[in-house]
Amino acid sequence: MLNYSPTATQCCNFPLTPTLSSLSKSSPSPQLPHSLSFSSALLTQQLASSHVYANTNTNVKSKLLNNSGLKIMCSKSEPLKVMISGAPASGKGTQCEMIVQKFGLVHVSTGDLLRAEVSAGTEIGNKAKEYMNSGSLVPDEIVTAMVTARLSIKDAQEKGWLLDGYPRSFVQAESLEKLNIRPDVYIMLDVPDDILIDRCVGRRLDPVTGRIYHINNFPPEDDEIKARLIARPDDTEEKVKSRLQIYKQNAETVLSTYLNISMKIDGNRPKGVVFKEIDSLLSRVQKDKEASKSGKLAVSDSHSDDKSSKKKNWRGIPTRLNNIPHSREIREYFYDDVLQATQRAINDGKTRIKVEINIPELNPEMDVYRIGTLMELVRVLALSFADDGKRIKVCVQGSMGEGALAGMPLQLAGTRKILEFMDWGDYGARDTFIKIGSIGGKEVDEQDDMYILVAPQNAVGNCIIDDLRAMTNAAGHRPVILVNPRLKDLPASSGVMQTMGREKRLEYAASFDICYCFRLLYYAGTQYPIMGALRMSYPYEYELYKRVDESPGKEKYVILSTFAKRPTGEEINDAFEGKTRNDAKRATGIWGFLSGIL
């Protein structure tokens, strides 16, 4: 049973998948003859000499997308490499056309590759045709080898590439990783299911021109065209729902490989609006690339290259989080992760948000808690927003109670002094853009743009929420960010819980939107070993990961499931046990009680 009590020790880590064997299963396929070798080298030679491939194209990349919060890890000598994923009818094809037209990347689609080889009658095409005609999936080794070969051709090497809809499974993604084929950006087009179903069911094909219409959204120009339109046999609601389910299962597993370079784009908008966001993303990469060539960007020395390599091996999630102290790379990973989520929330107009991050060094329930790590996180947030011209007030609650009973939570003891003596940079950010204050309505000044509150929490017999409410009321529409708040009521020294107004206090505490959550999962009552992790980074879903030992001294995190809202302890246990959400049994006893509270 996993420990998921909010008061229990928890931290986090990730990437996990359900059982990989269940994800890679497919219907029986014809066996490959021993005489037919689909090695990458052979396919490269065969495809390079084929007439099937000729033109296509590219750009560039960089270390950091300024102000976007998305890190793009890439070499300054390589062109831009992009992967794009989207459900059926998500508009992926349209966006690919626009990307190729704007950036000149080589468009690589596995469907096009297979059709071209089949049409050309090549040995590879004929073999693929056997599988297709038998209703079986073309084996991963054939498709991956074809993709690898296509990407090794000169035009893709020089211009860069846009890999459309591939990889489609964790196994395919891992195959590309082993071949050192990795994109700079992994774009996901996100469209609600009901919209996708409507787009598919209403879709019509003109068999004469090959043009796609929609009976409501994009009707034909005249009655003559309308009369000859046909519907694809797989564009029924039942079949579309089935395809969407398969896509989602595969997309979740692929995402674990590209989590730290992924960007989700809202595809439920006009195609021009969607492309404008994609264009902005790729243009910034291109701009940074050009700047690096001219020497305006300080690019990787051997140390930063080594750091990038380590992060790449994490697949977006650091490992060995029970090793204390955490390395500088691990701490910087989490500072970055929190910053990106916070920036996205602020840019979307959120004004009451909170960060909950409980890695060991930031978990006050553990004896390895380090106040310096919390202070560094706060400094990163404050300096980043100050760089954008914002005036930040970093606030720590003062003493609570009166007379001999005055005091403050042990976790915050000396925090204000540490903030005041910290290094805030050489350009005078402290006292110009960043000020240190307390929590309360009187601390709100007219010139403040936003507030970062350091671990606000109740103490025994005392409640910070009244001061907190006064401050947020005075702040009005200005953002207030709570970093690791602990706002549950605590009993007085007599053991009696304060009840007057408790419901209103809890309601206020819950009014802050979580923009970032990271928790490690352990067996109940333990802090070792780490079993998995729960992560949420605004505006994405909660992601549940399982820690997997690969070999002595090595581990990884595999995604198990995603949740639209924070999962309960029961849902987490069910996911780890492989139960479906419909078939899962309700937990009983003390764990059922704790799950209900969560």
UniProtKB/TrEMBL annotation:
Swiss-Prot/TrEMBL keywords: ATP-binding, Chloroplast, Kinase, Nucleotide-binding, Plastid, Transferase
UniProt name for this protein: adenylate kinase
Highest taxon in the source lineage: Eukaryota
Organism of provenance: Forsythia ovata
Signal peptide: none
InterPro entries: Adenyl_kin_sub, Adenylat/UMP-CMP_kin, Adenylat_kinase_CS, Chloroplast_ADK, DUF1995, P-loop_NTPase
Positions of region (Disordered): 292-320
EC number: 2.7.4.3
Family of the protein in this entry: Belongs to the adenylate kinase family.
UniProt xrefs under HAMAP family: Adenylate_kinase_Adk (MF_00235)
NCBIfam families: adk (TIGR01351)
Gene Ontology MF annotations: AMP kinase activity; ATP binding
GO CC, one annotated term: chloroplast
CDD domains referenced in this protein's UniProt entry, alphabetically: ADK (cd01428)
Quaternary data: Monomer.
Taxonomic placement: Eukaryota, Viridiplantae, Streptophyta, Embryophyta, Tracheophyta
Chain ranges of the DUF1995 domain: 331-573
Pfam families in the cross-refs: ADK, DUF1995
Reactions catalysed, as given in the entry: AMP + ATP = 2 ADP
Compartment list: Plastid, Chloroplast
